[in-house]
Each structure stands twice: as structure tokens, then as C-alpha cells.
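During the reporting period, our protein records have gained a C-alpha cell line. One record among many is quoted in full directly below:
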Amino acid sequence: MIWGYLTEFWNAITGVAEYPIEFFKNIGNAVAGALGNLFAFIIHSITDIFVFGGWFTSSLGTFFANILAPVKFVFGFLKSFIDSAFATPVSGDPIWEFTDELMSVFHAIPYWTTISSVLGVCVLFVIGMAIVKQLTRI
């Protein structure tokens, strides 16, 4: 049935006039180009839909992640706070270790803890004044 139709169509084309082979090549190229352009348009449209869908889901995920970021921060902070509050304390390592002979010299000075505290406050006061002087210079 289809072959009969194609035969009739061919006879109608060739019955009108004699066409050179280039004419049929050009028609074939035009039909192939039209079909290729049709499929290219359809494939391009489908890929545009998929690209838009990927962008939309990515943006939606980023939106929800940003909305839930404060809640995540609060829960993370509370979890680490509770974990550290109920954890066993870690003993600190001494920064400086002095010999017992040297410490016996300092323990022999009366009121050494008070004197060392006053000296520390004086040093901090001098450093603070130097910082203030530098800031007022600007």
C-alpha cells in the first residue's frame, strides 16, 4: 500500500519533466536538513527544560538550606554546649615549669603572690597606656 503510493508519487514527479540527478539530490538535502532542524529544535527544547529543572531544584535546595541555616546553627551550638558542659574537664598542662630551687626562692619572699599580682597589673597598665598613646597619635 505504501509502495504503491510512493510509486504513484514518483511517476507524478517524473511524468512532468525530465529532472537532472542534482535536482533530486537538492530535494533530498532539503528534506534531510528540514528533518534535522526539526529534531535539533525538539532536542534543544527538551535540554532547555532539563537545564531549567536542574537550575530550579538547585536553587530550591540552596533556598531551603539558607532558610534552615540559623536553626542548624542553634542546634549545633546547643549540642556542642551540652556535650562540653557534661564532659569531664581536661587538665591543663603548665606553660612554664620552674625548678624547685627557683620556686623556693620566690616562696621565701613574704607576700610574693600579692607582689606578683601588683607587678602584673602594673605591666598591663603600662601596655594599655602605650596602646592609648599610639591610638591618640593617629
User: Anything to note?
Assistant: The chain is about 85% helix and 0% strand. The chain has two domains: 1-92, 93-138. Residues 112 and 118 are 10 Å apart (CA to CA).
